[in-house]
Amino acid sequence: MPALTVGEDISFYYTDSGPQADSEYTTLVFIHGHTFHSGVFQRLVPFAPGRRLRIICLNRREYPESTPYSTDERKTILDGSDTDRAEFLHQQGVLIALFIHVLIQELSLPEKVGVVGWSMGTIFSVAALASIDRVPETTRARLRTHVKHFFLLDPPSQGLGIPNPPNAYNPLWDDDLPPETRGPAFGKWVSSYFHHEDLLSRDISLLSMRAPDASKTPTIESLTHEELSSVASFESGSRVETILVESEFRVALAAQTHKALFDSDITAMWGNPQVWHLHGEATTWNSVYAAWMLEEKARTSKDVRFKPLSGANHFFMWEEPERFLDVLMECMGS
């Protein structure tokens, strides 16, 4: 199985669809979210060659074949101060940046690379953006010439450090559910389709927080047992992942988001890549809310572009892989 070692003996397992016949192909590096690892992107692979795309998907730390967090890192995640947690995020961002750097070097990738963070994976793609000032100049130079696009795909508001609105709901926080049922309830909830009334109003009270569209099957319920086993690691997701999108990390995540997206010195170090925020219009409330809040903050800046995805739920890349790749191609060509 392919793996790259970066930093202090940290290895990332990854999958690779392989080079394309056209030497000017584009490489997309995917960073997965909570529980659902690199396997969740494999439906994209058959449709990559026709679009001159190379699909590389890493497994984050704690996930199969990649280096788990150290005892000290886990202690920081669970009990660290805001300063400790901010430093932890920077360290993870440096590792992701180094991974992309080594990947470009070892695979001789063309100077057309995009980074796609999905769901909670956006925490780590944003961390890479924010930590460019922490890597050696030789690494910065290679990233600056190669990485042209960043995509924040359906990030939850909590992962960007955005405070929750009143009456915010997530099955993982639901005290009315027995603890052992919250994980399965979350899987169904996060992969459901939601009908949100009047999205143009940006009225939080019109977001459907609990009740999904009963006429559509949640993605997780459409998977066979074999498919679910190939895309998810429930043990990995339950160890130390959930706290990263809870209130304990909000201060560190808010600072990271601001630095990554709105610090002109940081974006210049990257060579001013295009940053796209993509969210499904039928996804969970917190991903829609994230788009609203981030777009409000970006109103005076042209550094982040926004694109709503009609009819898409949180698992758009699994449900509609061809359409999803076409959306990315459209953004990269704009």
UniProtKB/TrEMBL annotation:
<feature type="domain" description="AB hydrolase-1">
    <location>
        <begin position="28"/>
        <end position="326"/>
    </location>
</feature>
<dbReference type="InterPro" id="IPR000073">
    <property type="entry name" value="AB_hydrolase_1"/>
</dbReference>
<dbReference type="GO" id="GO:0016020">
    <property type="term" value="C:membrane"/>
</dbReference>
<dbReference type="Pfam" id="PF12697">
    <property type="entry name" value="Abhydrolase_6"/>
</dbReference>
<protein>
    <recommendedName>
        <fullName>AB hydrolase-1 domain-containing protein</fullName>
    </recommendedName>
</protein>
<dbReference type="InterPro" id="IPR029058">
    <property type="entry name" value="AB_hydrolase_fold"/>
</dbReference>
<dbReference type="InterPro" id="IPR050266">
    <property type="entry name" value="AB_hydrolase_sf"/>
</dbReference>
